[in-house]
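Subject: for your reference before the review

Hello V.,

The reviewers asked for a structural picture of the protein, and I figured it would be easier to keep everything in one thread rather than splitting it across files. Below is the amino acid sequence we used in the manuscript, unchanged from the supplementary table.
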Amino acid sequence: MIPAFLIRAAIDYVRHSKALSDSNPYSRCEEAVQAATGLAKDKLGDFDESLLEIAVATNYWEEFFHAEDPLADEKDWREGLVKRSSNYDNFDAWQTWFKDSYKQVYRENNIWTSVLMTAWAHTHQYQLNYSDNKWSFVPSRSYLPTSQIWKLEPHLETIQEVILDCWYKELRAYFELGFRIETRSIPYFGKVECLNFDTTENIVHWPARAHKMHNEKIDLGKLVADIVFPVSDSWYRHLDNMIFAHEHLDVSALINRTSYVFESKRHLLELSVENEPAKARRKASAEGWLVEEVEEETADVAS
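And here is what came back from the structure prediction:
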């Protein structure tokens, strides 16, 4: 089972549990951590419980702000958090105000940290991220609604297998061109839309003839997410309507789309061996390959 799917499933179960209907969002987050921990022990074997708690907390509060079917108390909490956090341009000021105003209930733990950081991120167009043992804010780009996750579930294993097979073919093609791809596992439970392909780093080592000083990273998780769950005009991700025409998986369409996206990245890197990045991008685009817009890097703004 994909760890990220396990986490979102646990959160959805707890949010709709009749036994917890008289609870509150904070208590349900605690219950979600317990539910996900139980599932992880059964499905994942060895795992970092502290990292899992952080992953569940960040996913829970992100769902809290984007839920398609918010509960009554979630609406009240959401309204209050949005109203108050939007008054502060600086996260530290917001955190200080909240701690002082709610010192009777606030505790220094991962759940409250996630509440405050996700609220501030939501009102300032960021997303909360936790990696390398630190919290940070990254530009907000998209969100995968829970309803789309359940539509994916029956096809999850098949899609993973197809994409993994396409990736293995790409690795062989890179090798034949003189590239070397180094794969490193990272302590991260990932996002559902990335289908577990974001739990590793894929570092491209250039052929000797390239004379490149810096290695390239392939964001395989994002490539996969954009294939299966492209971002719609509404900013939310939805199952691709060609791959899932009439809600049935078209494996041929999945293979064709995945191959095109993966090959586009490889051809761009191949052209970059002897060309400056801008020129390589122009050539790749002229040849009909997919070329993404260059995104400006944004510095983390969390302390």
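For the response letter, the relevant points are probably these. Confidence is low (pLDDT under 50) at residues 296-303. The CA atoms of residues 33 and 53 lie 6 Å apart.

Happy to draft the paragraph if you're swamped.

O.
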